[in-house]
Amino acid sequence: MEVAPAPELQMLFAQAYRNLRPRAPIPPFDIRFRRFVSLNTTIRLREGQLLVHLSDLLQGAPQSVLEAIAHILLAKLYRKPVERSHADRYRRYTSSDAVSRQAEHARQTRGRKQITTAAGIYYNLDEVFEAVNSRFFHGLMGRPVLTWSGHHARRLLGHYDAAHNTIVISRVFDRAHVPRYAIEYLMYHEMLHLKHPVRVRGGRRCVHSREFQAEERLFPELDEAKAFLKLL
Asked: Coil, strand or helix: which one is 76?
């Protein structure tokens, strides 16, 4: 579903364009709110027209935040420096408790999580989880959904999706040459994300807190595991 915005937003983007490119003629804008899974925003130039898609979760944003979004999108499109004031304003808004909760709810209700299976050819993620749980968490960690990735991803080796309470491990680890300590370390790392949720401090997301990092260093084969991951 797409919703065309009010004319005021067209004027706001036109003003942001004029501030960034004072001598260039202002192209026509097609700005629409779309039902994205999260706080997505996109902009592209097509046949002389600027097409802007904003998440419908931003419809209630203050004008100052919409001005910041317009500046950021246009600055990135035309490779101009993003003013820090605009970047800070947008980050503070999207990191606020109310907006974060709204975005998380949208991910849970709108998003789809691809779940394949925990059983691999060489490793079973359920078994790996229980072994790590017993070894490091006294068996007290509640088991999330565990799944191998749909393809052999090498850039994203694993991640914990809080919205769907799911740990995804890349299938590149389900191979005979992968040492046990490597996959246990990766599972341990993602389980720490479950134990230490993302925090917001001063408008910034803290993914790996001091507590997270201190506990990660307790993994006995940490250096060996990280060295192996670099080879993938």
From this structure: helix
